Amino acid sequence: MGPSLRKQTHQPPQVILLGLDSAGKSTLLYRLHQGVIMETVPTIGFNIVNLKLDKKSVLTVWDVGGHESMRSNWKYYLEGCKALVYVVDASDHSRINEAKMALNIILSDHNLKDVPLMVLANKTDMQNSMTINDVSSGLDLKSCTNRDWEIQACSALQGLGLHQAFQSVAKMITKK
Ligand code: G3D
Question: Which pTM was predicted?
Answer without folding.
Answer: 0.89
